[in-house]
Amino acid sequence: MIRITSLPKGSAQTVVRPAPGPKPITLLIIEDDATTRLALACMVADDRFQIVLATSAEDALERLPAIDPDLILCDFMLEGMNGRELCQGLKSSPRWRYVPIIVVTRMDAIAVVTDLLKSGADDVLIKPVRGAELRARVIAALRTRMHYLQLGQADRGYAPPRHAYAQPRLTSEKDAAPQAGAQRSLNVYV
Questions:
Q1: Cα gap 86→107, rounded to integer Å
Q2: Smallest Cα–Cα separation from 164: which of 175, 155, 154?
Q3: CB 164 within 8 A of CB 146
Q4: Per-residue pLDDT tens for 46-63?
């Protein structure tokens, strides 16, 4: 089941978090193509993830403090600010430098991939993206983020929060590929 909720821009209520329990894992997907945006959201769908969609880097940056993402998945070729510029800006910020960024692109030239990695991307995937590989890379990037938070190296000015991805289930093999015929729920905030 997919539930898409439209939320106002710049609102402090951009992301609604459940009251008790651990902070949900928030994935921010930045993609200007609506079909690809929804496809990426479906590929990473998981009950533990809260997915927020943005149509441009500028839209994402405007809402970033309210979204407080645990991982950013963005397209390289965005209108306006591109994925490379977004990576450079976020990685130079003490608040966002430990948030993993996975960039997806159609450009498979080694120079492009190398440039993205040097600019701050934590991982680069070439389109078309395979769902199982994307999920595995998202889990790996979140696991690395969890380690940074546990070590207290994230520059947030407070103790590492308890995250839903601190659960042991995150590292299991069943996270890499869903069971055949299994129903998944997807809550998407735009």
A1: 17
A2: 175
A3: no
A4: 878 899 999 999 999 999
